[in-house]
Amino acid sequence: MAAAAAPGGRAGGSGWTWRPVACDALLARAFHSSTELGGRFYLVGGLLAGGATAPSSDTVLFDPAGAQAVRLGAQGSAPRSHHDAAPVDGRWLCIVGGWDGSRRLAAVAALDTERGAWEEWKAAPGNCPPAGLSSHTCTRLSDRELLVAGREGGVRTQRRYGNIYALKLDPGARTYCYKEEGCRTSSRSGHSAALIQTPGPHPGHQLLLFGGCNSAEPEVAGQWSHGKIKEQPPVAPHLTEQLARLVSSGKGARQGPRGLRHHSCSVVGPFVVLFGGESLTRARDTICNDLYIYDTRKSPSLWFHFPSADRGLKRVGHRTCLWNDQLYLLGGFGEDGRTASPQVCSLDLFI
């Protein structure tokens, strides 16, 4: 169900908003995963209402071309929230870690999208998993390797951790294997991760972590020389051009948002787009509706902040997905921190 766009933020003669493109109660959830695979968004698990202790076990498919949502009738799904997900081999959707209502998990479950069935993959020999994962990030380095960063601690302590794990996947054997990396980052959870190209004549790659702790600076969790990373992000030439024009209307800063967590993060060309989340630095009105753009085209990279006056855009525990040159916003709790949004929105930029 389409609706008129509400005003978002403006800088000079430019502005932005999230324009609703669909609305369905099946989509109302937060702290879920949302992954594009084969031109469809797979929304897995999450919390259906604020204060809920039992995560959802369902999987919803959203077709952005037809603006339709359906519940997937796959057998074998388990309740999960605060997990992360990654597509593998164009066929499997791998769910890594998460909260099942009683404990934090490190196991990997996979949805075989060809068969429409869930599989519990087994730990391979030599597997050295973390104690449990939630509010972590899981970034594709290749079709066989993910990098897992950060996590919350035990149920009683609620500490955060800076562990980094390489996670090797073998779809043929239906196995996974964790190996802890030698480097660590600042302790964090509820953060986001972005794999970006470094500028220069022979660009390499960096994995940057944003938020999840009190720091305002992104932290490098991995660095690779030219040609080491084969992963290719989706191409979005029109949206990239629009973002370039939007940042040209603002004033860049070296420092980004401090203490932001449970926000969304998507890489669009040389830009990292962060939206919403919860501020650790505020005592009240903690849920945000700000758009941040991190511009990596030159060194040092610069932050651009585009606030919004529309309180209806406040979101936490939501996701963004890039598809067909558009950035989509899915789910999340609104301003009250309890009511899940049933809308799918597309980022509109007015230049």
TrEMBL record:
Pfam families: Kelch_KLHDC2_KLHL20_DRC7 (PF24681)
A single MF term (Gene Ontology): cyclin binding
InterPro entries: Gal_Oxase/kelch_b-propeller (IPR011043), Kelch-typ_b-propeller (IPR015915), KLDC9 (IPR042941)
Protein origin, superkingdom: Eukaryota
SUPFAM superfamilies in the record: Galactose oxidase, central domain
Keywords: Kelch repeat, Repeat
Subunit-level organization: Interacts with CCNA1.
Protein name: Kelch domain-containing protein 9
